[in-house]
Every structure is written in C-alpha cells, then in structure tokens.
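Title: Prediction job returns without error message
Component: structure pipeline
Severity: low
Priority: P3
Assignee: unassigned

Description:
Job completed but the reporter wants confirmation the result is attached to the right record. Sequence as submitted:
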Amino acid sequence: MWAQAGLGSLHGTVTDPSGAAVTKASVQITTPDGKVLTTTTSGTGSYEVKGLGAGKYGIKVAATGFADYEVDGIEVGSGQSQKMDVALSIAIQQENVSVSDQAIGLDTSAESNVSQMVLTGKDLDALSDDPERPTLRFAEDACVQCGLCKATCPEKVIGLKPQLDFRAATAMSRVIKQEEPFECIRCGKPFGVKSSVERVLAKLESKHWMFKDSKQRLDVIKMCEDCRVVVMAAEQFDPTGAPARPKVRTTEDYLRECEQKDES
C-alpha cells in the first residue's frame, strides 16, 4: 500500500527537556477526516506514520511524567515525508501544551541537532558521565546527600542543599559541567578535554627542554595515545636524552674557592 503514488508520511523524534530520547511515548496522528492513527516511539525516541494523503494533520504525544503535547495544522503534501520533532516538558501538574493552526517552523539541519544524546543506564546514577563527550550530569532523585562529591570535586562546582522535591522523581539528569573534547590532530579521535590539553601545551612550550623551540614535539601532545607512539617511533626520539646537567657544587668546592680567593 505504501508503494502507491501520492501518499506521504509524518515522522520525527520525541525528546525530554535535556534532549534525551523519550521511549515508548504514545503518538496519535489525527487525519483530516478525524481518524486517529496511533503508534509509539522506538528505543531511540523516533516514530513514523506512513500512508498519509495530502492534507492537514494533528499530533498528540503523551508519556509518563511529561505534559501532553498537541499540535494541529501540520501540512503533509502529496508524496511528502514531513518531519515533526517533539520536545516534551516535565509535568509538575496536569497540563496540556496545545498549538492550533499556526505555522510550523522545523529546523532539521545537523548543526541544530548536535546536542541530541541518548539516555543510558548510567544516567540512573546520582553522578554520571557521557561516553561520547566530557560531561558530568546529576540526577537528584538518586542522590543520598553523602557529601562525597562535594568534598572530592577538584573544580568546586558542586554544593549540597537539603530539600524534599517531589518533582525529582520525574526530572531528568541535568548537566553540571561540560567541556569541548580535544581531537587528535593526526587521526581525529577525541582523547581528552580541550582546556586541559591547551594548559599542558602552554606550560611545556617554553619551560621544558623536551618541547622548547620544537613545534614537532608539541604536536605530539596534541595526538592520541596510538598516534603518539607511531610518531615518536618514527622520529627515534630518546626520552632520556636530556641536555647535560650542571655539575653539582659541593661544600668542598665552596671551601676551595674561598681558599683560592684568600691566596689571590
């Protein structure tokens, strides 16, 4: 039936306020003649309804812990695949978000969607990281107020505030600290935090004998562990080949110099 000419589709992704995918959300599509088509989001938060004729459609998205989302007047052209992403908000009280007969502005460019991230099992911890980027997130519902994170945080960005918030059970983890990763200049693989690598470069550039006045040696710091070994082996660099150290001046040397001054 989908192969019939002139039929379109409506598809998109359902996310929470942090941009994480919302799975198993109920998606209802209302056709121009009032018929309701129902589907659910996948494990990545996506949905798709095919076989739609040309006309204006409505969409309603519902998920546990989130406010219902409704939009009418979505134009689907003949044979067109229309994208409709939905960002749900946390339901503090019973509420509906409804927009009727208004122009739908959709931005599907890659630049506007780079912040999309997938919710993983580690997000259930009070403090969790992200395997794809230098990020620290906090889930209040899992916090036991032990104080360990505050005491050990090297950047002093964590504080404790005793409270009882019933919204924490449905709130998603929020980002406490996030930085841009540093990519290897040779293979492009992210291997560290950009700010940390830049601080190391600034300290070694003019103070360490191994990297002073050597752009090639400094470039090694900008490489991942694999590329670093390859380049250092090709250069035949001897890490123990430091410049000759000055002779140690002992007490006997000092006394000898004093005697020589007295004689002169």
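Comment from assignee: result matches the submitted record. The mean pLDDT is 78.
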